[in-house]
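Re-run requested by the PI after the first attempt was lost when the workstation crashed. Everything re-entered from the original request form. Ligand of interest: S-adenosyl-L-homocysteine.
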Amino acid sequence: MNDNMIAAGTVWLVGAGPGDPDLLTRKAEKLIRSASVVFYDALVGDGVLDLIPPHIIRVCVGKRSGRHSKDQRSINDLIVEAALAGERVVRLKGGDPSIFGRANEEMEALAMHSIPYAICPGITAASAAAASIGKSLTLRGLARKLTFVTAHARGDEPLSINWRALADPEATLAVYMGKSSADMVARELMAAGLAADTPVCLIENASLPGERQFFTRLDLLPLTAKTALGCGPALLLIGEAMAHRADKQVMKAPLSRKTCA
Ligand code: SAH
């Protein structure tokens, strides 16, 4: 690992993967070790944070749906200020920075100040979830399309989603940040023509010790999301690919009684 990987006054947006530190890329690990300051969000796993050497400044900018500890503007400002002060900055983001990671806002802020930046990709939650449940997200002839979508609206803005386009029986739908809107997702997809018995898998804390998997169907998704999921990040995978080789147990670990903070 060398200290020169990041030039002073530059920023790397680094994908931290889904949580398991073994799913971090080698490049990400090198970058973390050669930073002078690391800004990380709430989805970055503890095992990944343990890889940050103690002499490196670490700043939690803790964004979690519904309880943002810093707004995006303040995060942009912090990163810009650090880079302008000559720090070697790593902005560590859960999963892949380019997937629902607000990377663009940060890159625009950096570009406005002529701060050089680069991206190191990470394993996105959908890939980690598919690996955990032992299923392929695409299936020849059955699931020809894979769609990543978020069902999370920004502030008070209404969600504008083309449900008809999403209700494709030959696609697998990976819904990020969909836990609290599972009701709406199921209702809208069924209204747009997707069968009520379309297989669904909910994966919470994919790749982490507290991982849990629930196999259900579209019409039972709201109930499953409400009663089974805990406080961890959860992904909804919807489509026929979730039924393929349905040889998994419905539940892998007992329900935790933890309440959400
Ligand atoms: N950039 C991230 C996604 C950020 S959006 C990525 O590429 O994975 C945050 C959402 O990602 C969460 O609400 C959840 O839907 C999903 N997510 C992130 N980590 C997860 C994990 N370990 N298990 C299940 N879902 C996860």
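Saved to the shared folder this time. Confidence is low (pLDDT under 50) at residues 250-261.
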